[in-house]
């Protein structure tokens, strides 16, 4: 007699059969192939561009520049340079290292060498010289002070240096700190109007760079003017030009002339170009020459190349006139048109479907204090040098030891612990006495001591950001934070940046790449150090040594 499985057993067999068939079908279906890596990654840094300016003037942008990025890319509105000292060198170092200053070692544009007591510049290197240009001892010529690797370094490591990494900027630190240890940096020479590299990278320029300089493109602006691009009504909401205190010989009204006292292009003229759209236009033209000269995006090895372009003029314009000014407004509109032309060029040369673009900034900007005052905001200028002198006098009077403040490099103050120890003054007592005095001074919000930093000070966001900006070997013994809207300034003109407040930290962060990025406006908190892990994920390379950010997975296809 034949026996049959019971109904429960039949159901179990049917389930097992269905599961096996589904598994077999899944195994027979290949997983979707990941998109090929980009042929070219373009990293655009707009020096001194607050995110709020991109949004404030968005309606006036054309179709192919910022609007293309905002429409076709992933835009993070709450993105930050998340360290406490928001200056050019630190911000540029963070972008492609993915690291904070306490790791990457660039703690400012300048700082004090603890061993020698001398000033150092973030990219100086007396063993390297500009190629074909005058080189001073403190000129920026190499990345030797950068302590970690960059994305470009790791990309070249991954494929035996077949990838090409080229960076260009109006500032030496803008190019050098993007290029890392194994890229090639070119920077604008303010005495000649040329773009030059240094002997750290090569002994002589390639023919394409020599040819670019030979045409003297910077000379074409001589005798011309910078006038408003838009109709007068477009600037109606900008600050009154008479509010901004300016340096002698500077005026705050259009048009601005490109000239020199000598009557011909000279060092004075080439330096004037830095505070104008001309510098950024030249930088992008040199970048295009590099794309063609180095065959970027068409690498015969079939590997990804990296082009870093740091446009410096917006920083100079904002310093001089303020981010609320007509000049800053107009400059951003001109940058928009420049970017549109640059993207159009890349589309024809490489094909934008093969390109990933990242746009960000190294820092934001505080408003001119006098403008903030018109809006009933407590804003002033705080002389950090005078603060150091007053602190030294106070400590000498109260602790009976002279010169306990060795030097200052805002926001760092360096104390003489040895002199205190000889007078039987404990380190913490000296720090506390100094901090108490500083906290009573007008415009000072917070003071962090070396002991606090070494113990890992926690608490407020400000404390967290300042701790990230402090390096045990190089930073000062006190870090002073001004009140919101107050600026450290020894001059009574223009404005600056450098604080841990949102107007200095909140910068644009946009990533565009048709095959890899989902367009949209993202509300998630993001940091500039997230750029490297995200690009590294797409390129499948190991993270740089100090990288701490996250992969922006929500924006990836």
Summarize the structure.
Helix content is 35%, strand content 14%. 52% of the residues are buried. It has a 9-stranded mixed sheet with strand order 8-7-6-11-1-12-19-2-20, sandwiched between helices. The protein has a 4-stranded antiparallel sheet with strand order 14-15-17-16. Strands 3-21 form a two-stranded parallel ribbon.
Features:
Alkaline Phosphatase, subunit A, alpha/beta, 21 strands, 35% helix, Gyrase A, domain 2, globular
Shape: globular
* Helix content range: 25-40%
How many E strands?
A: 21
Instruction: Quote the CATH topology of the domain at 58-203 and 274-301 and 320-368 and 507-518 and 537-555.
Output: Alkaline Phosphatase, subunit A
Share in β-strands = 5-15%
What's the tally of helices?
Answer: 20
CATH architecture label of the domain at 58-203 and 274-301 and 320-368 and 507-518 and 537-555: 3-Layer(aba) Sandwich
Structural class of the helix and strand makeup?
Answer: alpha/beta
pLDDT < 50 stretches: none
Oligomeric composition of the shown chains: single chain
Strands side by side in the biggest sheet? 8-7-6-11-1-12-19-2-20
CATH-assigned homologous superfamily of the domain at 58-203 and 274-301 and 320-368 and 507-518 and 537-555? Alkaline Phosphatase, subunit A
Structure description:
This protein has 557 residues and is of the alpha/beta class. Among the domains are: 58-203 and 274-301 and 320-368 and 507-518 and 537-555, Alkaline Phosphatase, subunit A; 381-488, Gyrase A, domain 2. The protein contains 20 helices and 21 strands. The protein has a nine-stranded mixed beta sheet with strand order 8-7-6-11-1-12-19-2-20, with helices on both faces. It has a four-stranded antiparallel beta sheet with strand order 14-15-17-16. A hairpin with a 6-residue loop joins strand 7 and strand 8 (195-196). Helix 4 (88-97) runs parallel beside helix 7, helix 8 packs antiparallel against helix 10 and helix 14 (384-399) packs across helix 16 (427-439). The longest helix is centred in the middle third of the chain and has 24 residues, at 326-349. The radius of gyration is 27 Å and the shape is globular. The mean pLDDT is 94.
């Amino acid at each position: 007699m034949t026996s049959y499985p019971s109904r429960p057993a039949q159901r179990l067999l049917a389930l097992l059969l269905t599961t096996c068939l589904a598994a077999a079908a899944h195994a027979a279906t290949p997983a979707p192939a990941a998109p090929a890596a980009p042929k070219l990654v373009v990293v655009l840094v707009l020096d001194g561009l607050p995110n709020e300016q991109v949004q404030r003037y968005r309606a006036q942008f054309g179709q192919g520049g910022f609007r293309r990025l905002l429409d076709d890319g992933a835009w993070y509105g709450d993105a930050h340079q998340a360290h406490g000292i928001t200056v050019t060198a630190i911000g540029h170092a963070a972008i492609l290292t993915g690291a904070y200053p306490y790791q990457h070692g660039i703690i400012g544009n300048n700082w004090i060498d603890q061993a020698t007591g001398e000033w150092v510049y973030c990219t100086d290197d007396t063993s390297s010289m500009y190629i074909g240009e005058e080189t001073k001892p403190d000129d920026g010529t190499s990345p030797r002070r950068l302590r970690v690797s960059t994305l470009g370094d790791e990309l070249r490591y991954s494929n035996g240096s077949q990838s090409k990494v080229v960076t260009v900027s109006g500032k030496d630190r803008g190019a050098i700190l993007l290029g890392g240890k194994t890229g090639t940096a070119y920077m604008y020479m303010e005495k000649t109007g040329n773009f030059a590299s240094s002997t750290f990278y090569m002994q002589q320029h390639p023919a394409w760079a020599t040819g670019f300089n030979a045409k003297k493109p910077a000379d074409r602006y001589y005798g011309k003017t910078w006038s408003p691009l838009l109709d007068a009504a477009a600037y109606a909401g900008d600050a009154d030009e008479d509010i901004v205190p300016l340096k002698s010989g500077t005026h705050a009204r259009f048009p601005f002339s490109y000239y020199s006292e000598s009557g011909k292009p000279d060092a004075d003229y080439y330096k004037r170009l830095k505070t104008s759209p001309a510098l950024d236009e030249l930088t992008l033209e040199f970048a295009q020459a590099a794309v063609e000269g180095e065959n970027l995006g068409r690498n015969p090895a079939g590997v990804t190349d990296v082009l870093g372009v740091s446009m410096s003029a917006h920083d100079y314009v904002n310093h001089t006139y303020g981010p609320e000014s007509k000049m800053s407004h107009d400059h951003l509109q001109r940058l928009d048109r420049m970017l549109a032309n640059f993207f159009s060029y890349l589309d024809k040369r490489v094909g934008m479907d093969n390109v990933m673009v990242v746009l960000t900034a190294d820092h934001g900007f505080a408003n001119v204090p006098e403008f903030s005052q018109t809006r009933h905001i407590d804003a002033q200028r705080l002389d950090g040098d005078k603060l150091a002198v007053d602190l030294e006098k106070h400590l000498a009077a109260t602790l009976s030891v002279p010169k306990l403040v060795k030097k200052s490099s805002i926001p760092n103050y360096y104390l003489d612990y040895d002199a205190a120890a000889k007078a039987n003054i404990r380190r913490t007592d000296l720090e506390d006495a100094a901090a108490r005095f500083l906290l009573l001074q007008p415009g000072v919000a917070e003071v962090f001591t070396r002991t606090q930093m070494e113990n890992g000070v926690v608490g407020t966001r400000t404390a967290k950001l300042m701790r990230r900006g402090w390096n045990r070997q190089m930073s000062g013994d006190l870090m002073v934070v001004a009140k919101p809207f107050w600026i450290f300034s020894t001059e009574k003109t223009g404005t600056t940046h450098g604080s841990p407040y949102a107007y200095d930290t909140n910068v644009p962060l946009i990533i565009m790449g048709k095959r890899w990025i989902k367009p949209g406006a993202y509300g998630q908190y993001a940091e500039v150090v997230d750029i490297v892990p995200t690009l590294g994920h797409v390129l499948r390379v190991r993270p740089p040594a100090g990288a701490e950010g996250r992969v922006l997975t929500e924006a990836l296809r």
